[in-house]
């Protein structure tokens, strides 16, 4: 998209942000509603989980292709296609009365959502000069962090008062409004492009990223000994290696992996992976602790995350401005220090930890994450020459999906294995004190205590990962666009 760097297209950006907001909001909307859907459509827990697993898989398959689409088509063409698909999926989801139709609806939504996110990031990068990108990406960060955080709270309230289909009915008019606005407001044109997508690259990318995402997403449930788990992960790794090798040979690759030659982009990618794992530790482990062990309602669980979501929303534009002024390193060090400290506090949970204490720690943790997320990502993208922005945004979004799946699997595995170990130890200790068969209440109490210790250990692993990211952040320098690595080197200046 050709834009004037002096006059950013604020109208276009507003439409794209609105589309991205409903798309991201929708990605977390159904989590709270899964038990209700399971009962209503008479499916098993494993089957209903495909509404989130399938959504994530489609995202992981489509996002790597967006770099090609952004280069070939105009913002208008891409966004109208994306928001139309998302709207169609939402309407179908709202009237679905059997599970297969609902699953298809979610996957159609996912295709639209997968196109929207990299497209918006690319427009932001091309619309603002490097020295003003921080505040622009800060606004984007507001959308990216506030929407998924508020999703469970809003969803919990809706599910308690209405049928789960209302989750789709509420999103439908918003999506339709964005579709109409984008039809009239997006006017950009693109010269006809002759570049064609490589079919083998698409196949290898789909199996590679899809295999990794699927394997890691079911590892927590199936266990690492399952052929389905390690088989799909192994297949994914093989296809991903072949995909990367093919991209390095193609004159016009579908996804340009050579951008990892830019050190600050690579550093930001590694730090972002660690941050994603930290983010998912809170999103996955806290609901298990709050709902399964402590017995709080889904709505209370959602409200627990709300202050943190509000803080992230308020802080995203602020950290964007601070990034423009001070750079990523200072913000990253402070942010990771806060995140590490609060995550460590979460590794000391007990049956008596108060709801207020949990809420305050989670809010401060969200503050730390908000100081790191967009500044680190923006700093890495700032080093890329403009022509590689689509590849940078596509790779960042893909890594976010993959690291989220890997982080979830890792933390659930740590929690499960440590819970089993603690349960055996506690049972052996208690049995030695008893003269009769233990009661059901005692066994439940022991299981809950063992699970809390398992969750604590998983949080402790998360602390270690955050500390590694904190150390790496000390190497983050302020980035400016570097020379194209494909440009012939003439003489030293």
Automatic annotation (TrEMBL):
Species the sequence originates in: Metabacillus rhizolycopersici
UniProt main location, coarse: membrane
Protein family membership: Belongs to the major facilitator superfamily. EmrB family.
Membrane topology per record: Multi-pass membrane protein
UniProt entry tagged with the keyword Transport: yes
Residue ranges crossing the lipid bilayer per the database entry: 12-38, 50-71, 78-101, 107-125, 137-158, 164-186, 195-215, 227-245, 265-290, 302-323, 330-347, 359-377, 458-476
Matching Gene3D superfamilies: MFS general substrate transporter like domains, Multidrug resistance protein D
Keywords: Cell membrane, Membrane, Transmembrane, Transmembrane helix, Transport
CDD domains: MFS_LmrB_MDR_like
Residue span, Major facilitator superfamily (MFS) profile domain: 12-481
InterPro entries: EmrB-like, MFS, MFS_dom, MFS_trans_sf
Record's signal peptide: none
Protein name: DHA2 family efflux MFS transporter permease subunit
Cell location: Cell membrane
